[in-house]
C-alpha cells in the first residue's frame, strides 16, 4: 500500500424513507403543537422508515448513489465504515451486511458508534486510512431512530427522523481533502442520551415488553447546553488548526438537531446565513445521517466549486463531538 498525503471526498449520496411525518400528524399523537415544535426546534416534518426498513436498507441505497457519483465500483472498495447507533442488529456489523449486498468483496467492514457525531468520526478514520494507503473507503452515516423512539413521549418524539448519507473517500491532489479535524468526548455525560435496554448492562430478555428503557432517553436541557458549547468550541479549534476564520468557509454544514443550536454556533464565527446549510425543517434529527445527507444536498445544488472550503461539525450521544474542514475537489 502506498501512503498518500491528502485524502478527500470523491462523491456523495443519500437515501431517506418515503413516509413523511408532519407536525400536524404529531399533534394527533401527543400533546404538542406545530407552533411549539417550529419555534423550539425548527422542525416541520421528518421521514420515518417502514416496519420492514432497517439501517442497512437505507445505508445500501445511499452507498449506491455515492459509488455512482464517485465513479467507483463496489469491487474497488478497500474499507466500509458505517456510523450508526441503530444498526440492523447488535451484531454482525451493519457495515458487513452492506458489504455483502454491494458485493464489495475486497473491503474490510466495521461499524462505528459515536451517536450523532458518528459520521464526522468515521470521516476522520477514513481519511487516516486513505493516508495510510487504502485507495477507496466508503463512509456511511445511517440511523433509524424511529425504531427506538417512544411516540407517547412528546419531549423526544418530535425531534427525530430516519435517513442515510454516504461518501467515498480516496487520494486527492495536494492541498485538497480533509485539512483539519477535531474529535472529542465527555463520557461523564453518557447518561444524558442513551438507550438503557438491549446491551449487556440490561439485556432485553430481562425486562418487560413495555419497559420504558426500551426507548431512547434524553435530558433535553443538558444536551442543549452541551451542544451549543461543543459545536462552538469544536468549530473554533478546527478553524485554528486549519489557520482559517469563519469568513473563509464556503459551506458550514452542522449537525441538524435544532435550528437554535445551529444559529448560536454559527453566530460565533460571522458565517453569513447563505453559507449555513439547513434542512432540519424537512428531516428532523437523523443522527449520524444528518451531516452526510446535508452535504449531499449541498453538492446536488451544483453550487459547490472546486476549492471551496466546507466545515462540518456535529455532537451527540457519548457525549461526543467532532468537526472537520475539507477543501472540496482535487480529484485525481
Ligand atoms: C428538546 C428541546 C427542543 C426542548 O426545548 P426547551 O426549550 O429546552 O424546552 P424545555 O425542555 O425547557 O421544556 C419547556 C416546556 O415544554 C414542554 N414540552 C416538551 N416537549 C414538548 C412538545 N413536543 N410540545 C409541547 N410542549 C413540550 C416541556 O414539558 C416543558 O413544559 P413545563 O415547562 O410545563 O415543564 C431542547 O432542549 C433541545 O433541543 N435539546 C437538545 C436535543 C438534541 O439536540 N438532542 C439530540 C442530540 S444529538
Structural descriptors:
13 strands; 332 residues; Peroxisomal Thiolase, Chain A, domain 1; alpha/beta; globular
Question: How are the strands ordered across the major sheet?
Answer: 1-7-6-4-5
Question: Could you tell me the strand content as a percent range?
Answer: 15-25%
CATH topology of the largest domain, by name, is: Peroxisomal Thiolase, Chain A, domain 1
What is the general shape?
globular
Give the radius of gyration: 19 Å
Task: Count structural domains.
Answer: 2
Question: What low-confidence regions span 5 or more consecutive residues with pLDDT below 50?
Answer: none
Bound molecules: coenzyme A
Q: Level of helix content?
A: 25-40%
Distance between the termini: 18 Å
Q: Give the count of helical stretches.
A: 10
**Overall mean confidence score, pLDDT:** 96
- Gross CATH architecture of the largest domain: 3-Layer(aba) Sandwich
Describe the SSE topology.
Blueprint lengths: L6 E9 L3 E4 H5 L6 H8 L3 E4 L6 H16 L8 E5 L10 H9 L5 E5 L5 H15 L4 E8 L9 H4 L4 E10 L5 E9 L7 E2 L22 E2 L1 H23 L8 E4 L4 H9 L12 H4 L6 H11 L8 E8 L3 E8 L5
Parallel strand pairs: 4-5, 4-6, 11-12
Antiparallel strand pairs: 1-7, 2-3, 6-7, 8-13, 9-10, 12-13
The site of coenzyme A (COA) has 20 residues, from helix 2, helix 6 and helix 7.
Describe the structure.
- The mean pLDDT is 96.
- The protein has a 5-stranded mixed β-sheet, with helices on both faces. A 4-stranded mixed β-sheet has the order 8-13-12-11, with helices on both faces.
- Helix content is 31%, strand content 23%.
- The radius of gyration is 19 Å and the shape is globular.
- The protein starts with 6 loop residues before the first strand and ends in a 5-residue tail after the last strand.
- β12 and β13 (320-327) form a beta hairpin.
- The chain folds into 2 domains: 7-175, Peroxisomal Thiolase, Chain A, domain 1, CATH 3.40.47; 178-327, Peroxisomal Thiolase, Chain A, domain 1 (3-Layer(aba) Sandwich).
- It has helices spanning 23-27, 34-41, 55-70, 94-102, 118-132, 154-157, 220-242, 259-267, 280-283, 290-300, and strands at 7-15, 19-22, 45-48, 79-83, 108-112, 137-144, 162-171, 177-185, 193-194, 217-218, 251-254, 309-316, 320-327.
- α3 (55-70) crosses α4 and α7 (220-242) runs parallel beside α8 (259-267).
- It is α/β, with parallel strands linked by helices and 332 residues long.
- The site of coenzyme A (COA) has 20 residues, from α2, α6 and α7.
- Coenzyme A binds at residues 32, 36-37, 40-41, 116, 154-155, 158, 193, 218, 220-221, 223-224, 227, 257-258, 285, 316.
